[in-house]
Design brief:
The chain has about 220 residues and is mainly alpha-helical. It has one domain. Helices cover about 45% and strands about 0% of the residues.
Length: about 220
Amino acid sequence: MKPRVRRLLPALLVSVGLAGASLSIASCSAVANERIGIVAPPFSQATFQPVGDYLVWRCGTGDCHGAVGRNFRVFGCDGVRLDAGQTVSCVPDDAGAGPTSIYEYQATYRSMVALEPQVMTTVWEGCKGSGGAYPPPESCHPELLTMMQKARGTEKHKGGQLICLTPPCPPGITPPNPTATPPVYDQQDQCLVTWLEGDVDVTACNNATFTYGLPAPDASDQ
């Protein structure tokens, strides 16, 4: 029996060593995960609902950002439901339809801020505390985010250009006129930028939701 014990001992030591290494790695990962976070505009239904409603109306269809496989997914009653068995309708009925739930707003928010966590952190740090100013102060750079580049038409986007900051603008979008009285801005951009500042312009988001139609697809694939 003693030779067998001697043969088993190295294997046991290796197993214990591997287990210890695994625990060490797990501990390091836990510490690292605590240190690596996304610093972004905080979530609440009151502050994100206007943004979420705009996004699901403008971007949340099944062939756009409601589609499985998209890096950025949008959920809501006008698009794709978080619960695949729930009816796509904002009007409550016996089939399970109803307004966008807080869980759908949370899912959209998490998808949105996790797209580019480091960039989101940089943008939030530069934009927060701006008091909802639009145009934003020089410290605020929403254009660093790919989602803003795509919406503004400076990056290829399957849905085409949604936001117009300078003419010429896509059909259906009123050209901005900052020198008018009062100034005319793209309400979609104003909605998203003020949310990134931490003081969302609810009126701009509501106007963006109900003024603009669905985007027309272009020839790109992103």
